[in-house]
Specification:
This protein is 72% helix and 2% strand. The chain has 517 residues and is mainly alpha-helical. The protein has one domain: MFS general substrate transporter like domains (Growth Hormone, Chain: A, Up-down Bundle), CATH 1.20.1250. A hairpin with a 2-residue loop joins β1 (16-17) and β2. Mean pLDDT is 83; it is low at 1-18, 500-511 and 513-517.
Length: 517
């Protein structure tokens, strides 16, 4: 197979040999100044986390209403928060892995459209649930769509955003989950008010509003392009060159000045797909320390969040006599603190650096949760001060948790990116959504202060351990091209091919030794 690549910015005569292509596309994307085009990507792709936050929060808040006689659905509170939640988590894990594999194989754009449609259809069908089994099935399919979104969207964002902005943009977009959570909390208070909506209608309209929001996102997302990085690796180099050239022209028109010349080129050997064996060997043989880092970050944040958020409502009700009808307001405040963390700290991940910021946010949030547990154990907190403590903890924890997604999406080769995100997301989600509730539900529901303190300490300990691991293993990826952080497998193949005569691209080193970071 012969591919054609362009060697000059905006077009030109490329150097191509059998099965290889030399391109400046990554460097051309990384040198772009921030523009309206980048805002279109952020709005089109980033809003999915708002949907996820809305979904998760709404279901938790409507559990009591669904279980009441007259809701139109013969379901218990335990079934909503137990079986339905577990099926949503299971769907998210399966969706991440399945759609993550498809994303690496068939492209980012095709899959981030498909997964959003899956979410929309499943949510619409949830709104018209007529039986318990139908509700459970729809929750599983909704999870499939949301899990698939994570892999497709994170891949596309990191491959389209310039390297000097990648950290803050990724963190803020992942942190926008909490805007959805905040909206879901306030929305549920309104929609479940029986003086406004009938008992069997309000919760259905809540899901319907999620569909409306998703449709708006779908319309915006139609204009988001395929990743040029994915395109040239999969033999579509001419399309990638044309896409980047169009973006460059629009940016130059917007700024009124020419773009600087790209700093480097890269030679790759085109491929149709990457097998699971190659992916497994890459993650655990070529980059074992990075794999340990990814697992530590995802599991740590999953347990900390479950230690706090899984039982926050029962803690407020049992220990501070807060009405169950008003816990949504407290959660909205916590959600705001979660969003402000990535928003205000995100820039530091690009300037101060990944390693100090990832380690710092993980360790600091864990230590602050220890302090909160001690205050709570001493009986020094009220519902308001407890919420304030949670806000401070989660301000730092949210930035750290968002950096987990950023980390696994940029430290592995291009061909494995979506499935790597999916794998670590699935492990973290399973740990937080299955193991976490099994541990924390028993502790926070007991009504014993010492049990809740123990729940906090478990989450804090795993967060601190993850932070210490990051202090040693985190990769200094700030302001670096994705191809410099992890050389694409196709570049290695091009360099190793005797027939191609190609050489490694400038700045691209040899295949990492086992244990390389």
């Amino acid at each position: 197979m012969t591919a054609t690549g362009h060697a000059a910015s905006g077009g030109g005569n490329g150097r191509a040999q059998a099965g290889t292509v030399t391109t400046e596309v990554p460097a051309r994307l990384d040198r772009l100044p921030w523009s309206r085009w980048h805002w279109m990507i952020v709005i089109g792709l980033g809003t999915v986390w708002i949907l996820d936050g809305l979904e998760v929060t709404v279901v938790g808040n409507i559990a009591s209403r669904l279980s009441e006689p007259g809701s139109g659905l013969p379901i218990t509170d335990a079934q909503v928060t137990g079986m339905a939640a577990a099926l949503y988590v299971a769907g998210a894990c399966c969706g991440a892995l399945f759609f993550g594999w498809l994303t690496d194989r068939y492209g980012r754009k095709r899959l981030f459209m498909i997964t959003l449609v899956v979410y929309l259809v499943a949510t619409a069908l949830t709104a018209v649930s007529f039986s318990v089994w139908w509700f459970f099935l729809c929750r599983f399919i909704t999870g499939l769509g949301i899990g698939g979104e994570y892999a497709a969207i994170n891949s596309a964002i990191d491959e389209l955003i310039p390297s000097r902005y990648r950290g803050r943009v990724d963190l803020i977009i992942n942190g926008s989950f909490w805007l959805g959570a905040m909206g879901g909390s306030l929305l549920s208070v309104l929609m479940l008010n029986t003086s406004i909506f009938p008992q069997d209608i309000g919760w259905r309209l809540t899901f319907a509003l999620g569909v409306v929001l998703g449709l708006v996102i779908l319309l915006v997302r139609r204009h988001v392009p395929e990743s040029p990085r994915w395109m040239f690796i999969h033999g579509r180099s001419e399309g990638a060159e044309q896409l980047v050239a169009d973006v460059e022209r629009s940016v130059e028109d917007e700024t009124g000045r020419p773009l600087p010349a790209p700093a480097r080129s890269i030679t790759i050997r085109t491929r149709k797909s990457t097998g699971f064996v190659d992916i497994g060997q890459t993650l655990f043989r070529s980059y074992p320390r990075r794999a340990v880092l990814g697992l530590a970050l995802f599991i740590g944040q999953a347990f900390l969040y479950n230690a706090i958020t899984f039982g926050f409502g029962s803690i407020l009700v049992k220990f501070f006599s807060v009405s169950s009808g008003t816990t949504g307001y407290f959660f909205a405040v916590i959600a705001l603190g979660n969003f402000l963390g990535p928003l205000l700290l995100g820039k530091l991940f690009d300037t101060v650096g990944r390693r100090p910021m990832i380690a710092g946010t993980y360790v600091l949030s864990g230590l602050l949760l220890y302090v909160t547990a001690w205050f709570f154990g001493q009986g020094w907190l009220t519902a308001t001060t407890m919420t304030a403590c949670w806000c401070v903890v989660l301000f730092f924890a949210s930035a750290g948790a968002s950096s987990a997604y950023l980390t696994v999406s940029e430290i592995f080769p291009m061909e494995t990116r979506a499935l790597a995100i999916a794998f670590f997301y699935a492990i973290g989600t399973a740990a937080g959504g299955i193991t976490g509730p099994l541990i924390f539900a028993e502790l926070t529901a007991s009504g014993v202060v010492a049990d809740t303190v123990l729940a906090f300490c478990i989450g804090a300990s795993l967060m601190v351990v993850a932070g210490l691991i990051a202090a040693f293993l985190a990769v200094p990826a700030e302001r670096r091209s994705l191809e410099d952080i992890a050389e694409p497998l196709s570049a290695r193949a091009a360099a190793a091919s005797p027939a191609s005569g190609a050489r490694p691209a400038p700045g691209a080193g040899p295949a990492p030794e086992a244990g390389a970071t």
